[in-house]
Amino acid sequence: MEENVKKKLKVSAIKDGTVIDHIPAQNLFKVISILRLDHIDNQITFGTNLESYKLGSKAIIKVSDKFFEDDEINKIALIAPHAKLNIIRNYAVTEKKEVEIPAEIRGIVRCFNPRCITNNEAITTRFAVISKSPIALKCHYCEKITDQEHLQIQ
Amino acid sequence: MKKDLISITDYSKEEYLRILELAAFFELNPNQNLLNGKVVASLFFEPSTRTRLSFETAISRLGGRVIGFADAGSSSVTKGETLHDTIRMISNYADLIVMRHPLEGAARYAAEIASVPVINAGDGANQHPTQTLLDMYSILKTQGTLDNLNIFMVGDLKYGRTVHSLLMAMSDFENPIFNFIAPDELLMPDEYKMHLREKGIRYFEHREFTDIISAADIIYMTRVQKERFSDPIEYEKVKNIYILRDRMLKNTKPNVRVLHPLPRVNEIHTDVDRNEKAYYFDQALNGVFTREAIIAHTLNLI
User: Fold this and answer.
1) Which positions ≥6 away from A104 have C-beta within 8 Å?
2) A35, A44, B122, B157: least buried by Cβ within 10 Å?
3) pTM
4) Quick check: A122 contacting B, CB < 8 Å?
5) What whole-number distance in Å separates Cα of residue B203 and Cα of residue B151?
6) What ipTM was predicted for this assembly?
7) Residue B239 pLDDT greater than 90, yes or no
8) Quick one: CATH architecture of B31-127?
9) Candidates B100, B101, B223, B291; catalytic one
10) Mutate which of B4, B46, B118, B126 to test chain A, going by most A C-beta atoms within 10 A?
């Protein structure tokens, strides 16, 4: 109960839109950039370094009047694998969604292979997801596998 | 849809067989006029004697004309032109692009940009599919079949792209057995072993290069390169272990053939050259027929 009250005080409620919760605090700005939230006119509030049992320190983003397509929101799955979406209509949560790692990832991740063409010329990276947990991405170009340990966000 | 050849797995088993059938045809009839009036760009951003000359010979025997360069130094790369721009421009000039590039993934990228088909003649340590097809043609020619063969791969199995591609291609045929002989530092990577396990194909790993080769139908040798070792002492320990000598072939099967993608340094002693089981120089000649076949297939000439 007290936890709920605290949350409401920290980040104000929205009437309609999407709340993205359980983002690892250190990846908040990467999420903003991947979802291009810095390029839209909607009202956005966010909180970061909030306490979280699961993540230690989490961030939350509330975007008014914005409802993401699955393809769009799944782009953040690599950097916020436990993110939960609450779809808000008229101040009430009408739907909950979890992010899912897509079968193919374009952009976002760097290929770990320094000899890969994508690290030497301006090319959008492209990977087939061959394992979701632990993550393993096969580069469409050099065919090398970038694993969890070598995963680097662009 | 244009037909590129970037990775060996771009082709189906039916396409492997089609290429091998065409290669046999070109071996009997090497001079054809199928490429008459066509221009092929041969873009070697990195030097290669054998691959470039065999491609250019194949193009000439098919009656086509070659444009291009033999090393990046004589191209506009030295002026800082991107691969993107070079390929865009050249695909306006040529009907087909044959490309070797030092960076991995360069060929796949070039194929996405080019409006004409691209044949990968090697992209860094990644893929060299025409080598694999000529290896398969050599195996078929010497064994009469691609099924039920015991294939020994020796040397650098970790970084050697030719052994990886050959493994992938041969795993599409009936009942192969693979034997890997390599030092600890250069073992066959797990992803390839996993592929064999998934297909239910038997494989065995060995450290010692001994008379176990008596079971082989094919001995595929590769070079153990010093620069692959982080510890020079480890290299010194293994450098002379994986050398094939004539006496080692004494108790091998009569049909066995020794293959090597060349260039060889010291991993096959020159005393093997006179042995009728040595096949690496004939293998290089097969490259011309196989590349004629790949070009004809890529451009739907036949």
Assistant:
1) A126, A127, A128, A129
2) A44
3) 0.89
4) yes
5) 9
6) 0.90
7) no
8) 3-Layer(aba) Sandwich (3.40)
9) B100
10) B126
